[in-house]
Design goal:
Elements lengths: L2 H13 L3 H64 L5 H15 L3 E8 L1 E2 L3 H12 L6 E3 L13 E3 L5 E2 L6 E2 L3 H4 L12 H11 L3 E2 L3 E3 L2 E11 L8 H7 E10 H4 L1 H4 L6 E5 L5 E3 L13 E7 L8 E7 L2 H4 L2 H51 L3 E6 L4 E4 L1 H7 L3 H4 L4 H4 L1 E4 L9 H8 L3 E2 L4 E4 L5 E12 L5 E10 L1 H64 L5 H29 L6 E4 L1 H18 L3 E5 L7 E4 H18 L8 E8 L3 E7 L28 H11 L3 E6 L5 E8 L3 H11 L1
Parallel strand pairs: 23-25
Antiparallel strand pairs: 1-6, 1-10, 2-5, 3-4, 7-9, 8-9, 9-10, 11-12, 11-14, 13-14, 15-16, 15-21, 17-19, 18-20, 19-20, 20-21, 22-24, 25-26, 26-28, 27-28
Length: about 750
């Protein structure tokens, strides 16, 4: 079957479910879809949060790793400065350049010398001269947001025992940081404590994050002492330090390579007091229409409480990703399966209803049939217990319907069979034994409850269940008396009709001879008249004698009377011929007329062992003729043929056939007798011509007249192989002729 047809059938199946179920399914699928979508969203949200937490951890690790790199570099620079020899600052500058190229998050690296109070003026003077502008050592009070650069937050440094002014900045500090030139690091509120710590502990110190311009910075500080190794005594350290190695790191640059892979991330730096400021490089904004998640991680700094916060909004592809698609597909599939299941259930219900309806109809038909039929029907199980009988059965047995149920069929239906062989099983048992229909033997009698005996016929048929196991049998019985009576009545009626028909044929035949008899009447009556005349003349002659012989006269008169009687009989016969009706012509089927005539001779043909061959033309046209008269003619020709075949018996062969063309219909009757002698062929149609000892010689003459009255003719001849052949030639009744005839009849 083509796919399109299958698809069409499938769609029809799906369309078959009720409208209410369709709406319910739609609602269910929407609900399911919404539920699964929510689940999917929840999972996607959790997953996103997990990814963000992992990302925050990764950023922390990266920051720590780069800080370690910076510390190693600072250590190396400090070591370089501690080495003996001149021009160390130049080397340091070149190291700063190389390092900055390699580690771009290092803004600058530089040596910041300790300036005692007594050298301050000279120092400032030298710096002013070198820079070509006024230079003073300054203090700075950070603004509320911790940023640098506002002019009003700077002032000339207060008097202290020593200063660490910010000078050397390699390789190229930003413009914002230029503003920090001259800052006294030692007394700065942010960097100062870290520097003091670095001096007293002789370790590298990391300052808290410091916002300079748009960026957050970290300062790494390492004190350098007069001796190569730092004094072990903290008091000596505080006296013997000569400056500090300073490294400035840009926090956002430290994470630049890590966060470049996440352009949608947004960053904040949260300070220990809880305030937070935006991470400078966090540029991309999340799409606010989708949920945004936040993750934070502690910065790996000595100063506690600084946290890096990152936020990222979910993206559409995370929503419309594979899971959501799978959920939609799954929901659709589930709904389709549910739909299909409902459709199949619906179809099954429909089929069941149809089957029940069919079953009910068949049951009704069977019940009505069983109630309507005149045959008695009884059903019984394998224990011969009757569980059904129709009203005819109850009537035939002569007892009530209820009384019969549950009874043993062998006891209730008392059967006796004439000529039954002893030991033969009853038909009930036999049907179940042979597992086939068992017919009641001929001359089976049923004894009714009243004791009356009925000649019955019938059969017992076994009944099987679906597994072909025998579950009982059905007995059908009928009283043959009504049927026999009907048959007898029919037989009598048909015999009566046959006799009437024969009488009618004979009568018509006689009427037809009337015309011929007229021509032969003279011959017939002439003889008795001549005899009467001669007897009368003889009697007169005798009476004229003197002694008349009375005896002789009496005898002559008796003979004359006999002859007169004969003449009277001839007249009487003629009266009988003419006493009936005139011709009544109708359209006739020639085949039917031939068949009717043959039916009358059937017995005779059998008796005389004559073989009959019939060859009828298919659908010959009708002829316009008197039915009885035509049959009489055919009958006469057939009788002549039977007579002619007397010498060849028992090898007589009679052939009757019909033929037709557009205008004529021919009925041919031929035999295998001696045929017609050539010199007699012209005479046989003459009235009173006969070659038979007792023949009247009127048959053919009558036949010819009758056929001529119908507009036809009879031809006689011999067949080439021997035997005579008579042909009745009649005009065919054409459509126009039939119409004319119909008009006449009207
Ligand atoms: P009938 O039968 O009384 O002799 P018909 O007029 O019927 O009178 O027949 C006239 C004669 O025609 C017959 O005596 C017979 O000699 C001859 N004839 C008729 N039919 C046949 C036939 N089938 N074969 C030979 N001769 C026949």
């Amino acid at each position: 079957m083509p796919i399109a047809t299958q698809l069409h059938k499938h769609l029809q199946l799906l369309r078959a479910i009720p409208r209410r179920s369709k709406v319910l399914l739609l609602c269910l699928s929407l609900l399911l879809c919404a539920l699964l979508s929510m689940l999917c969203l929840q999972q996607a949200t959790d997953e996103h949060q997990r990814q963000l937490d992992a990302e925050a951890g990764k950023l922390q690790e990266d920051l720590h790793e780069r800080l370690q790199l910076a510390l190693i570099t600072l250590d190396y620079a400090s070591e370089l400065l501690r080495q003996p020899g001149s021009d160390k600052l130049t080397q340091l500058g070149s190291l700063a350049g190389q390092t900055s190229a390699r580690l771009p998050f290092i803004d600058y690296l530089g040596w910041q010398a300790r300036i005692p109070a007594e050298q301050r003026s000279a120092f400032e003077a030298v710096q002013s001269r070198q820079r070509g502008q006024h230079f003073v050592i300054r203090d700075h009070w950070p603004s509320s947001d911790g940023s640098w650069g506002a002019d009003n937050s700077w002032q000339t440094a207060a008097t202290h025992s020593s200063y660490v002014p910010l000078l050397m900045q390699e390789p190229s500090p930003s413009l914002d940081q230029h503003a920090m030139q001259g800052l006294d690091l030692l007394h700065d509120p942010v960097l100062g404590p870290s520097l003091q710590q670095a001096i007293t502990t002789a370790t590298v110190q990391v300052s808290p994050p410091l916002r300079i311009g748009q960026h957050w910075h970290l300062f790494l500080l390492q004190a350098i002492y007069d001796s190569k190794l730092p004094p072990s005594n903290p008091v000596l350290r505080d006296e013997q330090w000569r400056g500090v190695m300073l490294m400035n790191l840009r926090l956002d640059a430290m994470l630049a390579s890590s966060i470049s892979a996440h352009p949608a991330l947004q960053f904040w730096l949260q300070k220990p007091d809880g305030s937070r400021s935006e991470w400078p490089s966090g540029s991309a904004r999340a799409d606010s229409s989708l949920p945004t998640h936040l993750a934070s991680t502690l910065l790996p700094l000595p100063a506690d409480g600084y946290q890096l916060q990152i936020a990222q909004a979910m993206q559409w592809r995370q929503w419309l990703g594979l899971p959501l698609l799978a959920i939609f597909t799954g929901t659709a599939l589930l709904c389709y399966l549910l739909w299909l299941m409902l459709a199949l259930l619906q179809r099954q219900r429909h089929f069941r209803q149809q089957t029940l309806e069919q079953l009910h109809r068949e049951r009704e038909q069977a019940t009505v049939t069983l109630h309507a039929i005149s045959d008695a029907v009884l059903a019984f199980d394998t224990h011969y217990r009757i569980h059904y009988l129709n009203p005819s059965a109850a009537m035939l047995l002569g007892l009530g319907h209820r009384a019969a149920l549950g009874q043993d069929v062998r006891e209730l239906v008392r059967m006796s069979h004439e000529f039954a062989r002893p030991g033969q099983p009853d038909p009930f048992t036999r049907a179940m034994q042979i597992r086939d229909t068992a017919y009641l033997p001929d001359s089976s009698y049923l004894t009714r409850c009243s004791g009356e005996k009925l000649l019955v016929e019938g059969s017992v048929s076994p009944v099987f269940d679906r597994q072909a196991a025998l579950i009982g049998a059905v007995l059908t019985l009928r009283d043959t008396a009504p049927r026999r009576q009907r048959m007898l009545a029919n037989l009598e009626a048909s015999e009566r009709r046959l006799r009437q028909h024969e009488q009618e044929l004979a009568r018509v035949g006689r009427i037809n001879t009337m015309g011929e008899m007229a021509s032969g009447i003279a011959h017939e009556i002439n003889q008795p008249l001549c005899a009467i005349l001669s007897y009368c003349q003889a009697s007169l002659s005798l009476l004229e004698e003197d002694e008349a012989d009375v005896q002789l006269v009496r005898r002559a008169m008796q003979n004359a009377a006999t002859q007169a009687q004969r003449a009277g009989q001839v007249i009487q016969r003629l009266r009988e011929f003419v006493s009936k009706r005139t011709l009544h012509q109708n359209p006739l089927d020639p085949n039917q007329s031939v068949s009717n005539a043959l039916a009358l001779l059937e017995y005779e043909l059998q008796q005389q062992d004559i073989h009959l061959e019939m060859c009828f033309a298919d659908n010959p046209p009708n002829i316009h003729a008197d039915n009885i008269q035509l049959e009489q003619v055919i009958l006469n020709l057939l009788r002549n043929a039977i007579d002619a075949m007397e010498p060849v018996r028992p090898w007589g062969r009679l052939t009757v056939s019909t033929r037709y063309d557009s205008e004529r219909v021919h009925i041919l009757i031929s035999d295998n007798g001696p045929g017609i002698a050539a010199d007699l062929q012209d005479k046989i149609f003459d009235p009173f011509f006969s070659t038979k000892p007792n023949g009247m010689g009127l048959g053919l003459a009558i036949c010819q007249t009758a056929i001529e009255n119908m507009g036809g003719q009879i031809m006689a001849g011999n067949r080439p192989g021997g035997g005579a052949e008579f042909v009745i030639d009649l005009p065919a009744l054409t459509t126009t002729a039939a119409a004319a005839v119909a008009g006449e009849e009207v």
